[in-house]
Amino acid sequence: MWRSLLARAFLGLVLSFPGLAHAGQEPAASEPAPEEPALPEFILPTVDVIGKAIPDAPPDAVQRRDPTGAITVIDARERAGEARDTAELLGGSASLVVQDSGGYGQSKSLVVRGASSNGVLVFLDGIPLNGAGGIADLSLVPVALVERLEILRGAAGARYGAGGLGGAVNIVTRAPSSRLVSSGEVTYGSFDTVMGHVAASGALLDGRALVLLHGGRSQGNFSFRVDELPALDDNPLTQEVRTRNDARGGGALVKYQRGLDSGGRVDLLAELSLEDRALAGTVQNPQLSRRQDQTRVSLGARWGRPFGDTGEASARGFFRRDWMDILGGSTGVDAGAQRYTVGGVELEGRAVVGSRNALAVTLAASSEAVTQATGAQAASWWRASVMATDELSLFSERVKVVPSLRVERVGQYSLLSPKLGASVDLGRGFGVRANAGQSHRAPSFLELYIRQGLLLPNPELKPERALSVDAAGLWHDDAWSITAGGFAAVYENLIAYEMYPPMLAKPYNFAAARVWGAELEVEARPRTWLTATTSYAWTRTQNRYGDPRYFGKELPYRPRHKWVGRLRAGPDWLNGRTEVLIQSAQLINRVGETRLSLPSRTWVSVGASSTFLHRPDLTVSFDIKNLLDARTADYTGMPLPGRAAYVTFSMALEPLRTASSEDSHVASPL
């Protein structure tokens, strides 16, 4: 039924385009241009942050929360029409590794600086997306929703709470415009993949609103060659077809922003995500009929206003409900429905005190609950935290020292997450920054309370802990930006599953690890029509658990080297792009046997776009992903797709402006 309703809404918005086009035309020369109602801006007069700034960002923007952190901001608008999903946008960042389980719509999660996927926090406009197992699935956030991605690498516990061992990612959705704007996009490509979205934005009820509908599906089948007898030399390869890789989904995003007479502003958000996908299982335990049907509803509201010239206050509330149904599967493995609910509020106040200090205090409380149909299992708890931070400016604002502390209660666990950051502006575009902090991850509901097939829970688990440090030097001017640095972390009380007689597995706190490495990020914009970026990460991991089978071995699924280079050249009417990703081999078990590893991969992607008509803007794009047809597998051993080609046709009945004075300050998360 939901698919029928979504299809009707999608069709209705498409049919409304002609009217929107007429309404969105520029006024005639004899008619005065209408003035746009301006929404109030929230600007706290603090010291500028070294690095790329987010204009007029609200308190929960990543560079406001952690001004000295290792931060990368990715503008999705610069890659319109070429990325298939959010994970593809994140894959080019230093020290971020995407764990992919298939093609379009299949599960995708992040490993950041060696921390597991359940140790990385992901937010959608500030709404947490990590589920009952502690992992956020990026496949459920289509790229059509995204305006930019804010990435914080390193200890995120002090600023974002429990779960941020390796970092945090805030996905900022598209902002509404006060002018009537409509757009649409359709993509078709390999594996019978079809994606599309339509959006309309404009003034509404003394504010501005955005409505976006999206949908897509992919059959996902592709051929691959496999060695059925790898123990024999020169064994011929056989051709097989990867099935159980299909997915389909859709959803909607509604946003509303309105300025208040008091000088404040209200932001409202509603998001719906629907997905149905096949679950292939693993190479050792393939599934022939298992499917996952998942629905997510997210609601958010934010109010904020300045107080005088030196302060501001904000309040934010959110709610999220996930419905996940697992159908079919092998005998002896539980299947059924899971419901996950989370909601909370956050209050924050900021003020400049004297000439050196900018203080901020955040109070947050939330409730989480999960139910599992199989066995009528259920669990719930409350979270509450207090976070305080100070931005101390010294030596004519060239030195900034930022201590912060979060005291948090998560269910039965009491957590303390301190962090100290510092940055120094050396002049002539040079600067340095450094951070040291502690973060925790409380065990997930599934690890603590919910039995899943052959996996048993353990209510005696302790929180994981990470001690992290990083430092970097940077230089930037009008055309170049270079950042180079290193990091190190020690993970303690890591949770891992071990065999539990007779044929079960149970999680225990016995693992420990350390991670260290180096990062390099370079961005060059020497001409308006030329952009080049590159990032490199060298990461070493070491298992510190005393069992001689694992001690001193590298952690699985953590490649030692990763390099990404990207080049885009040409004007809007015709431009080309290429991206190269080189990732070294990665182990798939803790014993460190190289024969049981995923091979290194080199992915080359090329594409071209042309905006061949204006008012309305019509753009056609063509992309080839994995040009060299490099074949590899996911972390379960299932093969991943090879070469793929896509063509995208997009239309904007009024071009979305990315740097206008009217709209720049509203492109911020809740």
Task: Explain the overall architecture.
The chain is mainly beta and 670 residues long. 6% of the residues lie in helices and 53% in strands. The protein contains 6 helices and 33 strands. The strands form 5 sheets. The chain has a 22-stranded antiparallel β-barrel. A hairpin with a 2-residue loop joins strand 9 (193-204) and strand 10 (207-218). It is globular and about 75 Å long. The protein starts with a helix and ends in an 18-residue tail after the last strand. The model is unreliable at 1-55 and 658-669 (pLDDT under 50). Belongs to the TonB-dependent receptor family. Pfam families: Plug, TonB_dep_Rec_b-barrel. Residues 65-168 form the TonB-dependent receptor plug domain.
How would you describe the shape? globular
Helix content: under 10%
The overall average pLDDT, rounded, is 85
Low-confidence stretches: 1-55, 658-669
Name the structural class. mainly beta
Measure the end-to-end span.
31 Å
| Largest β-sheet summary | 22 strands, antiparallel, barrel
Strand coverage percent: over 45%
The Cα radius of gyration reads: 25 Å
Number of strand segments: 33
Specify the number of helices: 6
Subcellular location: Cell outer membrane
Family: Belongs to the TonB-dependent receptor family.
InterPro entries: Beta-barrel_TonB, Beta-barrel_TonB_sf, Plug_dom, Plug_dom_sf, TonB-dep_rcpt-like
Protein name: TonB-dependent receptor
SSE layout:
Elements: H1 2-15, H2 17-23, H3 62-65, E1 70-75, H4 86-90, E2 96-100, E3 108-112, E4 120-124, E5 127-128, E6 146-153, H5 157-160, E7 167-173, E8 181-189, E9 193-204, E10 207-218, E11 222-226, E12 238-242, E13 247-259, E14 265-278, E15 291-307, E16 311-327, E17 337-353, E18 357-372, E19 377-394, E20 399-410, E21 413-427, E22 430-441, H6 445-448, E23 464-476, E24 480-500, E25 504-527, E26 530-543, E27 561-569, E28 575-583, E29 586-587, E30 597-598, E31 601-613, E32 617-625, E33 644-652
Parallel strand pairs: 4-7
Antiparallel strand pairs: 1-6, 2-3, 4-5, 6-7, 8-9, 8-33, 9-10, 10-13, 11-12, 13-14, 14-15, 15-16, 16-17, 17-18, 18-19, 19-20, 20-21, 21-22, 22-23, 23-24, 24-25, 25-26, 26-27, 27-28, 28-31, 29-30, 31-32, 32-33
